[in-house]
């Protein structure tokens, strides 16, 4: 066997992840063993997707798939080893980070997301726990288990994607058609969470998620999102006004005006008006001072 599995480092919904190494080089790697036991007639679709999309993408801000192998009927993905993730960093209050660090992380995340979208791939599960750090501080978009090709306009999709707190309003409404704008919404929520250092829209269930989202950001109306009121669940909603600029300034006390514009661009209710990855990357937020930190100098270990 070319790879060893040494210790378990993580467990997700459909995989167990081990730390290991490559015999020939001694290189540290991670092995993601996909649980296929329940799928006797073949591999789970999510495993196939993850392999397919990772093979198509090579980018400094997307996790590298080094190899794949089968063992005891299980599919194993050999990935570059990434020692920690953004969720751990946000939760560990002994780690201090600055607005310049946040800017560097947003830049790397958006470059990774843009690379996916440019290759016609939707990630569909962006959240701090799926943004991993390399030893030199690069952010890598990881966990492509829910990814899919950007759909043709009339293709019908499941809206049951993305972890609840990071789910865009069109998904909360159960839209059967959606675009790469769902990933940008998730990035916007992650940006807010980095500034607040607590989850921004922590809904307790799917109904509460709408409540929490619209209370914070205003209930969408047909005026800024034509036909939003034709979604089935719309009439049950409480109508909240959008927050004033001053309310946003008070909530995001350390954010500059450009940082707020950047956040609001990603958190637009109407997916057609939401900023694209390119618009985000070209935002004045990245041009104003302070410049993003050099990733290799950010201390993320307490
Ligand atoms: P799932 O689809 O089951 O959520 P993930 O790919 O997100 O699987 O992996 C589950 C967990 O395993 C991650 O949250 C992380 O803690 C750990 N992990 C995943 N990939 C790596 C890696 N390349 N290096 C180190 N740890 C990893
Ligand atoms: Mg995961």
TrEMBL record:
<dbReference type="GO" id="GO:0005524">
    <property type="term" value="F:ATP binding"/>
</dbReference>
<dbReference type="GO" id="GO:0070985">
    <property type="term" value="C:transcription factor TFIIK complex"/>
</dbReference>
<dbReference type="GO" id="GO:0004693">
    <property type="term" value="F:cyclin-dependent protein serine/threonine kinase activity"/>
</dbReference>
<dbReference type="GO" id="GO:0005737">
    <property type="term" value="C:cytoplasm"/>
</dbReference>
<feature type="binding site">
    <location>
        <begin position="9"/>
        <end position="17"/>
    </location>
    <ligand>
        <name>ATP</name>
    </ligand>
</feature>
<keyword id="KW-0723">Serine/threonine-protein kinase</keyword>
<comment type="similarity">
    <text>Belongs to the protein kinase superfamily. CMGC Ser/Thr protein kinase family. CDC2/CDKX subfamily.</text>
</comment>
<protein>
    <recommendedName>
        <fullName>[RNA-polymerase]-subunit kinase</fullName>
        <ecNumber>2.7.11.23</ecNumber>
    </recommendedName>
</protein>
<feature type="domain" description="Protein kinase">
    <location>
        <begin position="3"/>
        <end position="286"/>
    </location>
</feature>
<dbReference type="GO" id="GO:0008353">
    <property type="term" value="F:RNA polymerase II CTD heptapeptide repeat kinase activity"/>
</dbReference>
<dbReference type="InterPro" id="IPR008271">
    <property type="entry name" value="Ser/Thr_kinase_AS"/>
</dbReference>
<feature type="active site" description="Proton acceptor">
    <location>
        <position position="125"/>
    </location>
</feature>
<keyword id="KW-0808">Transferase</keyword>
<dbReference type="InterPro" id="IPR050108">
    <property type="entry name" value="CDK"/>
</dbReference>
<dbReference type="InterPro" id="IPR037770">
    <property type="entry name" value="CDK7"/>
</dbReference>
<keyword id="KW-0547">Nucleotide-binding</keyword>
<keyword id="KW-0418">Kinase</keyword>
<dbReference type="Pfam" id="PF00069">
    <property type="entry name" value="Pkinase"/>
</dbReference>
<keyword id="KW-0067">ATP-binding</keyword>
<dbReference type="InterPro" id="IPR017441">
    <property type="entry name" value="Protein_kinase_ATP_BS"/>
</dbReference>
<dbReference type="InterPro" id="IPR000719">
    <property type="entry name" value="Prot_kinase_dom"/>
</dbReference>
<keyword id="KW-0597">Phosphoprotein</keyword>
<feature type="binding site">
    <location>
        <position position="32"/>
    </location>
    <ligand>
        <name>ATP</name>
    </ligand>
</feature>
<dbReference type="GO" id="GO:0032968">
    <property type="term" value="P:positive regulation of transcription elongation by RNA polymerase II"/>
</dbReference>
<dbReference type="InterPro" id="IPR011009">
    <property type="entry name" value="Kinase-like_dom_sf"/>
</dbReference>
């Amino acid at each position: 066997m070319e790879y060893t599995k040494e210790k378990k480092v993580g467990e997700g919904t459909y995989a167990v992840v081990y730390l290991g190494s490559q015999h020939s080089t001694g290189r540290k790697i991670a092995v993601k063993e996909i649980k296929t036991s329940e799928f006797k007639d073949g591999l789970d679709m999510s495993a196939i997707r993850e392999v397919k999309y990772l093979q198509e993408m090579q980018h400094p801000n997307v996790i590298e798939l080094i190899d794949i192998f089968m063992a005891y009927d299980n599919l194993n993905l050999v990935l570059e080893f990434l020692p920690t993730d953004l969720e751990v960093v946000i939760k560990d209050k002994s780690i201090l980070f600055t607005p310049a660090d946040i800017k560097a992380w947003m830049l790397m995340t958006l470059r990774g997301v843009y690379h996916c979208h440019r290759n016609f791939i939707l990630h569909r599960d962006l959240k701090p726990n799926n943004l991993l750090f390399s030893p030199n501080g690069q952010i890598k978009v990881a966990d492509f288990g829910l990814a899919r090709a950007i759909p043709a306009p009339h293709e019908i999709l499941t809206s049951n994607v993305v972890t609840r707190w990071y789910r865009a309003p069109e998904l909360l409404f159960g839209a059967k058609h959606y675009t790469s704008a769902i990933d940008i919404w998730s990035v916007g929520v992650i940006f807010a969470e980095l500034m607040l250092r607590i989850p921004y829209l922590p809904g307790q269930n799917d109904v509460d998620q709408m409540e929490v989202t619209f209370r914070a950001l205003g209930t969408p109306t047909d005026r800024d999102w034509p036909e939003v009121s034709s979604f089935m669940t719309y009439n049950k909603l409480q109508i909240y006004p959008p927050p004033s600029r001053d309310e946003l300034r008070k909530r995001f006390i350390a954010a500059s005006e450009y940082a707020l514009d950047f956040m609001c661009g990603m958190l637009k209710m109407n997916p057609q008006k939401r900023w694209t990855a390119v618009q985000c990357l070209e935002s004045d937020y990245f041009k104003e001072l302070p410049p993003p930190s050099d990733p290799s100098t950010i201390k993320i270990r307490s």
